[in-house]
Amino acid sequence: MSRRANSSYSTAGIIIIGDEILKGQTQDTNSHYLCKNLHSHGIRVNKIITIGDELDVIAKTVKEFSEWYTFVFTCGGIGPTHDDKTFEGVANAFDDKIQAHPELVELCTKYFKVSDLSSPKMKMAFIPDSAKLNWGKDDRTGEQTIYPLISVRNVFIFPGVPSIMEKAFKLLQHLFHDPEHLFYSRSIYINQDEISVVSTINEGVRQFGDRVSIGSYPEFHNSYYKVHLTMESSRQEEVIKAFEFFSNRLPQGSIVDYDADAVTNAMEVVPKLLKNTQLPLGFHAKLRHAVSVLEDALQQYSLTEICVGFNGGKDCTAILHLFYSVVKRKFPDQDVKIKVLYIKSKQQFPEVELFIQDAVQRYSLDLISYHGRIKCSMGQLKSDHPKVQAVVMGSRRSDPHCNKLNSFSRTDPDWPQFMRVNPVLDWSYSDIWTFLRTLSIPYCSLYDRG
User: What strand order describes the sheet that includes 71-75?
Assistant: First the structure.
């Protein structure tokens, strides 16, 4: 009997397809995205495999996974080129044939302006004969997706491009849900190393291990904690008991109030901080002013006309997060990309480069990068991006030449002309760190080294 039939809960197998993944030319992020979202829908991912663009291997793997798991997700191998073989591989897995689907022929004809079925642009119209077309609909606009998600039996064939795959999943996530077997979980973040708390963890495993899955994950590069302790079960009451056990037994002062989804929760930044009565005197007024400045900037300039100066430092990291929060509150239903201006210095630390690249992914930023002197780089910005009129800065009055700035100050006459937006002019060094650490905002690791 198959594992699928034996299982009391819904399971999934993920097949990542592409020679470019195996060669290290492209990094797979699709499996992580699927695992995270399927888990929240009550579906347990049991296996992930990466295979190349070999027809026989695709067919064999799809057939096996289809027998083993409730859901099978393939990513990659869809497109007009010679190495896009997923549709044919899935067809072979089920002794099916590849046929031109009338709806997809019409779609490709309209989109690619071709009618010849032998054209490579028509390749995406050829799918397994027994395939189903799953059309998604955007709830905000009511518009149907341009191209459907193709499925055969319990196999769902996703594109490999992460942004397209994620959008398809979001619009069709109702297909992948097991409400009877949702997983309940809690996390505790600990600021001591794992060896110092292992006896408490082991005691908890002895007491709850048969009902709760307990995980302990050391973290060596996080600025806020050293161990991530997880508790998970299909029985919520058991998770609560385990959470209370560890909360009471772990060393006093070792548990950190850490937000693992600081960026996702960015819309709640201002309400959360304004409700925090433990913050330094005067900080609330400075925060309200900074938010007001950014809101005024977004009234005066569109998102195509404004960018954020970002060099990986603590001040501009705080500004980026605050600006992101204000933008998300103003445009809650839009997938917007914030422009950031990064001017590289001659000798840049690799840690800074890595942090900036991580920030680009974390906030989904549109990075504009130049190398050289600030004045010349601003001139390049004016030339390359003539629509940009304003730059949000992390300048503070204690910085050189900033004591006479206002919240909105134009650049000097002999400089490329931009409006400088300065939301945190009156913030102190301590205010910046209060903002960052209270919200668990990631910052460059160099600051932890002194």
Answer: 44-51, 11-17, 71-75, 155-158, 149-152, 132-134
Q: How far apart are CA 136 and CA 146, in angstroms?
A: 9
> What's the pTM?
0.76
**Residue from 254, 140, 277 nearest 198 by CA:** 254
What is the Cα 75 distance to its own chain's centre? Answer: 18
264 pLDDT tier (thresholds 50, 70, 90): confident
Q: What is the DSSP string of 313-381?
A: -HHHHHHHHHHHHHHHHHSTTS----EEEEEE-SS--HHHHHHHHHHHHHHT-EEEEEES-HHHHHHHH
Residue 296's H or E segment, with its range, is: helix 283-300
Nearest by Cα to 76 from 114, 122, 39, 22: 22
Where are the extended beta strands (E) located within 191-226?
213-218
Contact 128, 94 (CB under 8 A): yes
Contact 294, 323 (CB under 8 A): yes
Instruction: Specify which residues 227 forms β-bridges with.
Output: 190, 218
Tokens (6 digits) for 166: 């994620």
By CB atoms closer than 10 A (0-12, 13-18, 19+), residue 142 is exposed
Residue 151 and residue 7: Cα distance in Å, rounded? 22
pLDDT digits (tens, 9 = 90+) for 281-336: 899 999 999 999 999 999 999 999 999 999 999 999 999 999 999 999 999 877 78
Handedness of CA 222, 435, 358, 310 (dihedral sign): negative
C-alpha R_g of the chain: 26
Count how many Cα atoms sit within 13 Å of the Cα of residue 43 in the half-sphere of its side chain: 24
Pairing of the two strands 408-410 and 419-421? antiparallel
Question: Residue 295 CB: number of other CB atoms within 10 A?
Answer: 13
- How many residues does this entry show for the chain? 450
